[in-house]
Specification:
Number of domains of chain A: 4
CATH class of the largest domain in chain B: Alpha Beta
Shape of chain B: globular
Largest sheet of chain B: 6 strands, mixed
Radius of gyration of chain B: 24 Å
Structural class of chain A: alpha+beta
CATH topology of the largest domain in chain A: Sulfite Oxidase, Chain A, domain 2
CATH superfamily of the largest domain in chain B: Periplasmic binding protein-like II
Number of domains of chain B: 2
Strand order of the largest sheet of chain B: 2-1-3-14-4-15
Oligomer: heterodimer
Helix content of chain B: 25-40%
């Protein structure tokens, strides 16, 4: 019996060994090395708390309007589902699978929609980004491929770009795809698209202008690289727009050449004496150079104040054709051969001069760059860059503050924003403060609220760097790893003008007395409320000046500001309704407001500024 | 009887143990991410390496070079070897980025191991294929009825290299309108070229789309253009010479001042630059300078099998790998060079000549 048991046990042992040897070969999947979580010092108990839902997607409109959506909010939107698959650049196929999400079209509608001049920028959490065209967003215009062979399809069914949160009935794999991913769905599993469009770890969708970049190189006594935005601003209807109609009836639009020359002929770039008349009279050559090197030379005397010589960027309201893109010299008195296109440089035959040390930037020009681990820039009197050591040397404040998404107070140590603002001196009428993190994430808060916030601070993070602690603000403004605070809007930048229109406007407009004097004047007969007789007043209509500044649709009121600080406020609507309200010269050469029908307090002497709010 | 039973069981035990010893063990995976232009040779290398190392399962995956490195350095995927068609991307994307929670960069060395040349691919179906030569190719590309494939410079190094090559050709052949003859009027937003103090700067718009009826066929990668060539949907495409040879396509070879392969012409290549009008990655500046095409490889710091990765690289750059690459029309450099040679794994030091 004993022997039989031994034999059976041995047989069982042999069979078990054989079975083990026959297991199929398995390649062990590589495991990602796990970074050990840093130990937290001083933790004595584990706090279990329910954290409110964080936003998973920021949707930004072309005007900056931002909607931050949590997953619940996203899932509550109109659902679009279908089959989505992809092919990699090297032919690897991911077959179509059912996906569910929200169409890009619906998302951009949340923030004002888009038109053909715009694109939609999609950004992943690691900074990867790609821009979709209008046609891709609105019509699902993608090249598609057979899902089996990856051969390009000549015709295919409709495709819709969606931000997907579900794949095959389940949430997306947060490691593989991220919480959200862009996919292109079709009703049937009959096509796939290029993988590079299918942005993983999607965190941001932004509508933005899709215009191509170009630069105009201006060189004379000074040098300037003028970008497209600056040129278009300068050639807007409220600035220096001029047009010329050719013999075929085409209307070419742009700005007079002499304005561009005036930016680099001497130290003065953009004020009334920007174009140096005396220098032009003395004579120098102006060369317009095309991308292919073709050059047209003109004489300064012929250019001086000549509105007929136009550097055009548009024809019949559209950008120029490739042949002339982006700029062409046109106008009366020019031969065809002189109408050089594809202009990339305007060169003045002048000796270069040293740039003034602290030059005020004209509207549209970028401010001087500052560097530091934290920069405070934009509409500030003193752009400030601070290194970590500088920040550590500043007075540290400790505070217990409640995070908007948490239910208990947290202790923070850091620098009050007010201390930082005291260094940089932001414009008090700035509109927005943009908080930027090291990974590019941005959050905007009303500048006035940030300036008024006594407890707001940059708090030290355990892992290094600073986070914005913003009691009373949305959680999205509590940003980790803050690297920049930028003020947008306002008039902190030095304005070299005797009279300025600023604030909630499209274009901050500084004017010198001389520029005002050269404007179209009207004469009205009106009675000052504190005087008995009707008097003729000659000046520039205030509404004409306001039109140049172009108050934004949200503007409600204006402040008239005098040189001695006197300020009076009135509704913008009242000013708009006052057709005869003027800006006139006083006897001492300063400016005054002439406000027929309004009380004496609105007739301000030594008027220096109109601030729109 | 008992003795006989025991003998039988002993034999059975011995046989069983023998069989168990012969049964294959679990294979160790070796994850290799490579640029698309390396598909054919690296698949051949995989086969040969696995023959020599049956315990290893080489898992190849191919993408555009930026995506290859992004998978390692931004997505933190455990990859054992990365091979890029643009060596400069390795320091750009991996040296400056640390593994999460550490101050260890994803890479601090790379080996420059291969080059390539740009050439013009075509087929028997290509228009004017019977008259195209090394002297007139640019003129033929400029013809209105010639369909030209372009890989998207926003996604593919071959794309921006093609733009650079055409500007270099302009200068070499002294044909000032060569670039515009191919691209002018073809895109909804133009690809512009500027002259900045002797350097040609090509600006690629953020949205690059061809107009309806355009002669340019834009695809995400140069590999995708091959099927269009073979189907006759396009007439010509700029490809790497190795890929043209691997796919048996017809080829117009380009001179060294133009094909971006010659170290002697590196200064000339540096006179062209492509700028993308957007920041595609937080870590990648959208500016690419013309330079000699050079492939780089490294072992990411988060590789799961670094020792095996070193073994693979020794194989690839050794005599057998060198022979495989040459047989697949993608020869290695005569001399392998290293960036940051002081950081090289010791077992790879013998592979390199003088560092840069």
């Amino acid at each position: 019996m004993k022997r039989k048991c031994w034999m059976w046990m041995t047989a069982i042992l042999l069979l078990s060994v054989l079975a083990t040897a026959c297991q199929p070969q398995v390649a062990v999947a590589p495991e990602a090395p796990v970074a050990e979580a840093p130990e937290e010092a001083g933790v004595v108990e584990e706090v279990v708390e329910e954290v409110a839902e964080e936003p998973v997607l920021a949707v930004v409109g072309s005007d900056g309007e931002t909607v931050e959506l949590t997953m619940s909010e996203l899932q509550a939107l109109n659902v679009t589902s279908g089959q989505a698959g992809m092919v990699s650049s090297t032919g690897a196929i991911t077959p179509p699978v059912e996906h569910k999400g929200v169409s890009l079209k619906d998302l951009v509608e949340l923030v004002g929609g888009m038109d053909e001049t715009m694109g939609v920028y999609l950004e992943a959490k690691d900074g990867y980004g790609i821009t979709f065209s209008y046609d891709q967003v609105m019509s699902g215009d993608f090249i598609s491929y057979d899902p089996v062979t990856a051969i390009e399809l000549e015709t295919a069914g409709p495709l819709t770009a969606i931000v997907a949160y579900e794949r095959d009935g389940k949430p997306l794999d947060p490691v593989q795809d991220g919480t959200l991913r862009l996919v292109a769905v079709s009703p049937e599993a009959d096509q796939i698209v290029d993988g590079h469009w299918m942005v993983k770890w999607l965190v941001r969708v932004e509508v933005k202008p899709a215009a191509a970049v170009w630069y105009l190189h201006l060189e004379g006594a000074l040098t300037e690289e003028m970008d497209r935005a600056t040129f278009e601003s300068g050639s807007s209807p409220h600035c220096h727009l001029k047009s010329w109609t050719d013999e075929d009836g085409n209307e070419w639009m742009g700005m007079p050449l002499w304005y561009l020359v005036g930016r680099v002929d001497d130290e003065v770039r953009h004020e009334s004496r920007a174009f140096d008349e005396d220098l032009a009279e003395a004579g120098y050559k102006v060369s317009l150079v095309a991308a292919d090197g073709f050059t047209v030379d003109l004489e300064s005397q012929d250019i001086a104040f000549n509105d007929e010589l136009i550097v055009a960027s548009q024809i019949n309201g559209e950008p120029l054709d490739d042949k002339y893109y982006p700029l062409r010299l046109v106008g009366e008195g020019l031969s065809k051969g002189q109408m050089v296109g594809a202009i990339e440089s305007i060169l003045l035959d002048l000796e270069p001069i040293e740039e003034p040390a602290a030059e005020a930037a004209a509207p549209g020009e970028a401010p001087a760059a500052v560097e530091g681990d934290l920069v405070i820039i934009g509409s500030v009197e003193t752009p400030t860059g601070l290194m970590t050591a500088d920040l550590e040397a500043m007075e540290q404040t400790e505070a217990s503050i409640m995070h908007p998404k948490k239910e208990e107070m947290q202790d923070y140590t850091g620098i009050l924003l007010s201390e930082l603002f005291a260094l940089a001196k932001p414009a008090q009428d700035a509109e927005t403060m943009v908080i930027t993190a090291g990974d590019g994430y941005q959050s905007e808060v009303p500048a006035a609220d940030a300036l008024a916030c006594e407890e707001c601070m940059l708090a030290v993070m355990e892992e290094g760097g600073y986070m914005s602690v913003m009691p009373g603000f949305e959680s999205s403004s509590w940003v980790k790893d803050v690297v920049s605070l930028e003020f947008v809007g306002g008039t902190a930048r030095e304005m070299t003008g005797d009279f300025v229109i600023s604030g909630n406007v499209e274009f901050t407009m500084p004017f010198t007395y001389a520029e005002i004097a050269e404007m179209e004047m009207v004469t009205i007969n009106a009675k000052h409320p504190k005087k008995d007789e009707m008097v003729d007043y000659t000046g520039v209509r205030l509404n004409d000046l306001m039109a140049m500044a172009k108050p934004k649709t949200s503007a409600q009121k204006v402040k008239l500001v005098a040189g001695d600080g006197y300020t009076i406020e009135l509704p913008l609507a009242d000013l708009t309704a006052c057709k005869d309200c003027l800006l006139a010269f006083d006897d001492d050469g300063t400016l005054k407001s002439v406000m027929p029908g309004m009380e004496g307090m609105f007739w301000a002497k030594d008027l220096v500024q109109v601030v729109v709010e | 009887m008992i003795k006989r039973s025991r003998n039988i069981l002993t034999v059975l035990l011995a046989v069983t143990l023998f069989l168990a010893g012969c049964a294959p063990t679990q294979k160790t995976p070796l994850v290799v991410f490579g640029a698309g232009s390396l598909i054919v040779p690296l698949n051949a290398v995989e086969e040969a390496f696995e023959k020599q190392h049956p315990e290893v399962d080489v898992l190849n995956e191919f993408h555009g070079s930026i995506q290859v490195l992004r998978h390692a350095a931004e997505l933190d995927e455990p990859i054992d070897v990365v091979l890029s068609a643009d060596h400069a991307l390795i320091p750009m994307l991996m040296y400056s980025r640390n593994m999460p929670g550490t101050d260890i960069p994803y890479a601090d060395w790379y080996l420059k191991f291969a080059s390539n040349k740009l050439a013009l691919a075509y087929t028997d179906q290509s228009r004017y294929g019977d008259e195209i030569t090394a002297d007139n190719w640019y003129e033929i590309l400029g013809r209105e009825d010639v369909r030209v494939g372009l890989s998207d410079p926003r996604f593919d190094a071959a794309g921006y290299r093609t733009l650079m090559m055409l500007k270099l050709a302009e200068r070499h052949y002294q044909k000032e309108d060569l670039f515009s003859a191919v691209f002018s009027g073809q895109f909804t937003q133009p690809v512009r070229d500027l002259d900045r103090e002797g350097r040609a700067v090509i600006l690629v718009p953020e949205i690059l789309e061809t107009k309806t009826g355009s002669k340019i066929f834009l695809r995400g990668s140069s590999i995708q253009l091959l099927s269009l060539l073979e189907s006759g949907d396009i007439d010509y495409a700029m490809e790497y010479e190795s890929v043209i040879e691997q796919h048996g396509l017809k080829k117009v070879s380009l001179p060294d001042p133009v094909n971006m392969s010659s170290p002697a012409d590196s200064e000339r290549y540096q006179t062209v630059e492509v700028r993308l009008d957007f920041q595609r990655f937080s870590t990648v500046k959208p500016e690419f300078l013309g330079e000699v095409i050079a492939y780089g490889l490294t072992i990411p710091a988060n590789a799961a099998n670094p020792a095996l990765a070193e073994e693979y690289i020794r194989f690839l750059l050794g005599p057998e790998g060198r022979g495989i690459m040459a047989a697949n029309h993608h020869p290695l450099l005569d001399q392998i060079t290293a960036d940051q040679p002081e950081n090289l794994p010791q077992s790879l030091e013998g592979l390199v000549g003088l560092g840069e």
